[in-house]
Amino acid sequence: GDSVTQMEGPVTLSEEACLTINCTYTATGYPSLFWYVQYPGEGLQLLLKATKADDKGSNKGFEATYRKETTSFHLEKGSVQVSDSAVYFCALSNQGGKLIFGQGTELSVKP
Amino acid sequence: GAVVSQHPSRVICKSGTSVKIECRSLDFQATTMFWYRQFPKKSLMLMATSNEGSKATYEQGVEKDKFLINHASLTLSTLTVTSAHPEDSSFYICSASPHGGGTGHNEQFFGPGTRLTVL
Question: How far does chain A reach from its first CA to its final CA, in angstroms?
């Protein structure tokens, strides 16, 4: 069945460091891909999405490119801030609107 | 816009009792709502999908008689954990989608979650 695998955390970075969180997927057909963020004590929020191959999603300085040839959707940010500390979930949506999530990666940014 | 609320945010109950969790879409009508369970340091696991006015569709391994889902209106879905036991302790999250299934590209808006602790 469809699945999402993302790098294990926690990831600890200093402020202004570069961030990459790897995400790969297995799916039939042509899924949409998402990154969700969960700040402490809050619900999941959509961070960015891409609906077809080579699409680049971006928001709040974060980017991810839908790579069909490598079945990947890595999350990147050039300069992280303390306020980016959260848990990040990669997810795919195939048929029926169901979301399949990766295991989540906790990011901690230190000043 | 697109706000989803859950009530209660936290609940502690005794083993053997039932607990009801409400999920409301506050500023849109949700044709479809989803219920997830999240374990500590783990991903979200989809429990069931509910469409307004019809029976919920449960994922494999989820007991439908234990986790009763009702989606009586376009803005409200409820999850009732019946005869709760300590192993049911978890973080339960709902989401709502303004559209039906269809293409699979429809966005889901998530509630803040309900922390259930069964003693």
Answer: 41
Q: Which of A105, A81, A77, A79 is nearest to A91 (CA)?
A: A105
**3-class secondary-structure state, position B34:** strand
Residue B46: strand pairing partners: B36
CA–CA separation, B39 and B73 (whole Å)? 29
pLDDT in tens, A14-69: 999 999 999 999 998 889 999 999 998 788 899 999 999 999 999 999 999 999 99
pLDDT at B61 over 60: yes
- The answer, for A103 touching chain B at a CB cutoff of 8 Å, is yes
Give yes or no for A1 touching B (CB within 8 A).
no
Check A99 against B111: CB less than 8 A apart. no
CB contact under 8 A, A43 and B93: yes
Residue tagged 């999250």 (tokens): B93
Nearest residue in A to B48, CA atom:
A98
Report yes or no: B80 and B19 within 8 Å, Cβ to Cβ.
Answer: yes
